[in-house]
Structure formats: C-alpha cells, structure tokens
Amino acid sequence: MKTIIVTGGAGFIGSHVVDRLVGRGREVHVIDDLSTGNRRQIDRSAKLHVLDIRSEKIRPLFRRIKPDTVVHLAAQIDVRRSIREPAEDADINIRGGLNVLEACGAAGTRYLVFASSAAVYGPPAVLPLPEDTVLKPSSPYGLAKLAFEHYLRIFSEIYGLKYAALRFANVYGPRQTVKGEAGVVAIFLKRLLSGEPVGVNGDGGQTRDYVFVGDVADMVALAALKGLPGTFNISTGVETSVNDVLRQLRRLTGSGSPVERRPPVPNEDRRCSLDPSKAFEASGWRAKVKLADGLRLTCEAALAAGW
Known about the structure:
This protein is of the alpha/beta class. Helix content is about 40%, strand content about 20%. Helix 2 packs parallel to helix 4, helix 4 packs parallel to helix 5 (about 140-160) and helix 6 packs parallel to helix 8.
C-alpha cells in the first residue's frame, strides 16, 4: 500500500485531499499544527501528527513513516501578512518547506506535490496566464512560493526527487475559513449570513480565477497517485469580478447586508486568470464545477455548519 504524508492535511484544501487519498485505499498521515486547520475535518482513517513543519521532529517522523509520496500544502497563506511580516512568511514557507524537503531525502521519498500559487506571476502581461510567462511576484508570499519551486527543481536535479508544482488560482468551497486573504468567498458569506456589513476593496471590479476546492483536490490526488511531473496551473481560465461574486452570494443568501467600500489594496493586481490547458493535456484534468454551482454548495455547507 502506498503511504502518503499530507502536510496541512487538517486545513481547507488539505482535508479534501485526504478524503480522496483515503478513498483510494492509501495509508495517509497528516502533519498539521492546527493553527488554522481543524482535526474534525480529517478522515478517521488518516493518522494526525500535530506538528509544525519547521520542527526538528519532522525528519525522524518521516524516517519512521517512510512515505512514498508527500503532498506539501502547509503554508502561511495570507498575502497581506507576508507584507507585514516577510521574515515570518519566509520562515514558514521557505525554511519550513526546506525542512520537509530534507525530511523527504532522509526518508527516501520519491515524489512530492507542492501547492504553489497564482501569486508567483505578478501583474499579468496576457490573460489567461500560461505557466511559461515571466514570473514577477508582487508580494513576499508569491516570492516565497516561487523560491520553493526553484528549490524543488534543484532537489530534483541533485537528488532525483520527482515533483509537481501546482499553481492554484483562488480556491473556494466548503471548509474554507475566514482567515487569510484567500478566503474572500468565506468572508463575504460569513458576513452576509450574520447580517454584518460586507467590505469591498476599491470598486470591486478586480477579477480573479475562482476554482472549486473539490476540483483542486481531485487534481492534487491525481498527481499524487500517478506521480505526475511538471508545473501546472490549477484553475478555470475564467475571470470573475469581486462584485459578481458578492452579487451571487447575496442572491443565494437573501441577505440585505450593506456594502462598505474601502480603499484599494496597494499593489493588488487588477485582473488575474490562469490558463489550465497544460494540466488537461498532461492528465485529462479540468475544473468541472461552475462558479454558480460551487457558490451554492459552499453556501449550503456554511448553513449546515451553523454559520
């Protein structure tokens, strides 16, 4: 039986990935410090190890488990926090990631899936963005993600570790929390359901590529199970404005929460979408859940959770 470690496996995306890997009969170990993750989200068949990825205990744990594959999702995900605290962001996303990589080497791990980000691109020259476009991250968060992609390439060349770097667009869906900039759908939904004012930065016309968490988890699991090598955008290729997301959520919730317009976020990219065609050509994966359906499923899950 293939043994897989999922870092960040108690989190939003990670818990969905664990569900799929367990469902395919894999032995799954979760490493999560529970700073944002929730142990109740983890499938009972998976083994939880409450541990920070920067811990010195990571390497002996890997040596004991001897994972064939590692899915590295644990990260500091808040772009704004990375601007306020760039050293802490790098400590988690680079030093913590290197600790995981060195543990892979010590344990003889053959393959790693890395959760990279659209933040590696920076201001778009063309949309949707292909993987081979010029990379100019606009934040320390994006820079750290890109740096770790380069570490993966070097470890692959020197030590033979095969990998996939999956550049996620804006992931949303059930189990998303209101923590971090990536949770805009969850933040809007939480406020709409509680009747609180909804804050929108700038005019709300900025666009993002929103991809449903179930589709993302399908691709992560596919890469982990097949050992798919390469760098891939995990996205829809479709731009949707913040105003449109809010409009759809207001309709789904029937909320009358007022909208508060806030100043634009400095250095925020006006538009973004990623070209997912390379992932489809390599694996047959494509995002299946349309935004309207995904927002409905997210709303239903939030109501079931008592939001």
